[in-house]
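Narrative summary of target 7.
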Amino acid sequence: MQEARGRKYHQDRVAESLREEISAMIEGELSDPRISFAYVSQVILNPGGKSAQIWVAVDGGPEEEEQTVEGLFAARSYIRHELQERTGKRHVPDLSFHVDRSERMKARIDELLGRSKRRRKDA
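Modeled conformation, tokenized:
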């Protein structure tokens, strides 16, 4: 049991370092005009460490989200190369980028709950 907990802790540390480094690259180094203001909300590293899902929250509408993900996919090899240089690892996982819409969903749920509370108050 000790081994599994250690492996999970290591994966969490690697995922967090990937999140920090990719966030720094998105904020300042990537000059693709398709990439709008975005931040990495979560990195999910697959158990073998061969691939990682990068969840990116984008400020803007669906069109800007799509363009940002396209720009990040285009810069994927550059990002992997920079991660290898910065972390000094022999193997950098294959990256796949996804739009994180959880904040928008949370805001919508809060709005609906607020409406429901107001209706109950009025009734």
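DSSP finds four helices and three strands in the chain.
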